[in-house]
Amino acid sequence: MKVAIIGSGIGGICSAIRLKNQGFDVNVYEKNDYPGGKLSTFKLGDFRFDAGPSLFTMPHLVDELFAISNENPRKFFNYKKKKIHCKYFWDDGKKFTAYSDKKKFFNEIEKEFDVPSSTVKGYLKKAEKKYNLTEKIFLKKSLHKLSTYINTDTLKALFNVNIFQINKTLSKVNSEELKNKYLIQIFNRYATYNGSSPYKTPGMMSLIQHLENHYGTYIPEGGMHEITNSLFNLAKKIGVKFHFKSEVTKLKIEKNEIKFLEINNDKKILSNYFISNVDTHHFYTKLLGNNISHRSLKSERSSSAVIFYWCMKNIKTDLDLHNIFFSSDYKKEFESIFEKKQIYNDPTVYLNITSKDVKNDAPKNSENWFVMVNAPHHANQNWNSEIKILKEIIIKKIEKVLNIDIKGKLIKEKVYSPADLDKNTNSYLGSLYGTSSNDLFSSFLRHPNFSKKIKNVFFCGGSVHPGGGIPLCILSSKIISDLIEN
């Protein structure tokens, strides 16, 4: 039995590994000349950058793929746990270091915010309970199969429905339970992990905080792209075949089944099953030519980003791998992104510096800065003009908070806009996570991992259930491998 996978993003590679282990003949077709999709790398002179996702949590999900392939993950892939989750900065001079060590973390909260550690411990305990009650339902199975709900896990969740706080927004929950404005902003930011607004996404989403607090954050040896490299090498070793510079340009459907896919407008590929690891909007509009649609295509798009890759020469900061410089008005920032479709004039800035942990990512006495700002999806904004203004705002913000000179240290840069993300990654309108979670029923409105209209196609990756980000993309591969096996 043959499986053809469209795209070699992290979801596609993980699906290939699982299905090969189930005995399928697996072929992966990728338009680029490299694997990984957004999770890739590039160099600017002597500086190396990870192009896409910069946060690594739940590494056991990667290790599991080696285990089911009867391989020792440490022969392929190594990583270390970070002692610091993130460093936070505010314009008024307030600073906070989120340590991975729980005792140090809670001590820092009491010291910096004068909030009893019991307050945050209670909040995280509730987040943990939300996660434990819903993990098997929402993250490890298809939400769109009746069998998912006919079990004791669903009954447990229903009996505890009030704990999910689905009738309150995440920001409302955080305001009521944490009270301190700095803590509220820290815990509100987790809504951006799936491209949503904390003022719209339901309180259920506080379970994301549990994942980071419980599992910790990690950095792979060699950088984030080593997740792609290790899984790609594993897939090849067990017999998965990759075809690069092989863009899928068309799918032929007959009698509710895909009969073949077309490569580069020419070669036809037959298969028993087809896996889509591309944005669902691209799948329906480009590959199927709008012959079939799905209701999820009408859902609100997630946020996007403007990313600056900066080569910083002769600089040595006290920053860590992950750093956040907060907006002074978080609510207005999200209103600007989702309602006005504009970048806010005082944006929150995320600064990632892998050279803090990965040797040779930057020359001596230099740092590689991945600077990201949340942005609206591409809606015909003048990004050249927006980026020029934004760059000055970011530089002034960081210079003010850190009291350092940036302009004199910045020697080279590359910039990515939502329009670039749309064009280069087939992410519709540059949305990083497909659809947003700014709705009570957003989880159910995401595209499922299968199609009721096409019998032999399945879906993985960030634009489908259970969502975007590395852990959820990996879990989507588990869901579809189970669906095919069953």
Verbal overview:
By secondary structure, this protein is α/β, with parallel strands linked by helices. The chain folds into three domains: 2-40 and 58-75 and 225-298 and 446-485, 3-Layer(bba) Sandwich (FAD/NAD(P)-binding domain), CATH 3.50.50.60; 83-216, no CATH class; 301-425. It has helices at residues 10-21, 60-67, 73-76, 102-113, 117-139, 152-159, 170-178, 181-188, 207-215, 225-237, 280-287, 330-340, 383-402, 418-425, 442-445, 470-485, and strands at residues 2-6, 25-29, 41-44, 47-50, 79-81, 84-89, 95-99, 218-220, 241-243, 248-254, 257-263, 267-270, 273-276, 304-312, 322-325, 349-352, 367-375, 410-416, 457-459. Strands 7-6-15-16-17-14-18 form a seven-stranded mixed beta sheet. Strands 9-2-1-13-19 form a five-stranded parallel beta sheet, with helices on one face. It has a three-stranded antiparallel beta sheet with strand order 10-11-12, with no helix packed on it.
Quick summary of this structure?
The chain is of the alpha/beta class and 486 residues long. It is built from 16 helices and 19 strands.
Beta-strand content = 15-25%
Number of alpha- plus pi-helical segments: 16
Poorly predicted regions are none
Overall mean confidence score, pLDDT = 92
What is the topology, as strand order, of the major beta sheet? Answer: 7-6-15-16-17-14-18
Q: Which CATH class of the largest domain? A: Alpha Beta
Reported CATH architecture of the largest domain = 3-Layer(bba) Sandwich
Q: Work out the helicity level.
A: 25-40%
Task: Estimate the global geometry from the Cα principal axes.
Answer: globular
The fold-level CATH name of the largest domain is FAD/NAD(P)-binding domain
Rg measurement, Å: 22 Å
Any idea what the CATH superfamily of the largest domain is called?
FAD/NAD(P)-binding domain
Structural class: alpha/beta
How many E strands?
19
Largest sheet: 7 strands, mixed
Domains counted in the coordinates: how many?
A: 3
